[in-house]
Amino acid sequence: EGDRQFATTLARGLEVLRCFTPLEPMLGNKEISVRTGLPKPTVSRLTYTLTKLGYLRHNMRLGKYQLGSAVLSIGYPLLASMSVRQIARPHMKELADYCNGSVSMGIRDRLNMVYVESCRSGNGITTLPDIGTSVPIAQAAIGRAYLAACTPSEREALLNQMKVKQPEILRKFKPQIDRGLEDVRSRGFCTSIGELRREVHAAGVPMRRSVDGEIVSFNCGVPAFLLKKGQLEDDIGPRLVSMVRNIEAALGMH
DNA sequence: ATCGTGTTGAGGTCTCTTTT
DNA sequence: AAAAGAGACCTCAACACGAT
Known about the structure:
Blueprint: H1 8-18, H2 29-36, H3 40-52, E1 56-59, E2 64-67, H4 69-80, H5 83-99, E3 102-109, E4 112-120, E5 134-136, H6 141-149, H7 152-165, H8 167-187, E6 190-193, E7 200-208, E8 215-223, H9 231-252
Antiparallel strand pairs: 1-2, 3-4, 3-8, 4-5, 6-7, 7-8
Helix pairs in contact: 2-3, 5-9, 6-8, 7-8
This protein binds a DNA duplex through helix 3.
């Protein structure tokens, strides 16, 4: 609003692409119009253009659109340029095997954390969280760890966005967010006790990279029934912290 | 025939560039 | 510097089309 450098049409086209989710992979113009609040003709022209460029595919039978291969092509270079993934992977795999769970690395996208790397224990009790999966910051240990590593002004900005866009979620999880801040400060990690998925308990640890200042955050999630009492707090959390310290040290050598 | 959905056309606004 | 021109974009109304 009032920003003369802001290319509105481009933003709208990208908003159209963001309507597609794993749960709603196929959408028609009308549905996109409702989700974005854009007029039908505008959506019609945007989907037409995005289809021409390969960002959308049109299913003739259903008359609906789905994301096209070009979307993956523009996303992949980001993953490929994150050398921290290669360095972290063996550390993550080792911890995942130790605790029969999964260990993931994520970066922030708006009010979510997006997984950019994920490892799972060999026995495969847990499902492997896919790269590209996103989880809400407020509800997940990996997100609250991220918040704890933000500067006060970054954190305030994010909390304000939550207040506007997801007030009920923020109200429900504000205590856990505050608790997470304290926990990360005092012992290096925070936890989520089935707050995102009821059957999974998780610990989260942030890592602020000195190179570019971007925060990368890690979690370790374990099925609740596999955990001994106090194990998340006394064993897995501290191990996740030392894993991150080891990754930091390994990064320092590069 | 009617409804829901998608497309087309025209008019309007805004901004930038060219002309006077 | 002001006026005119050009282009991009948005949106309303009308039209098209298939499903019920």
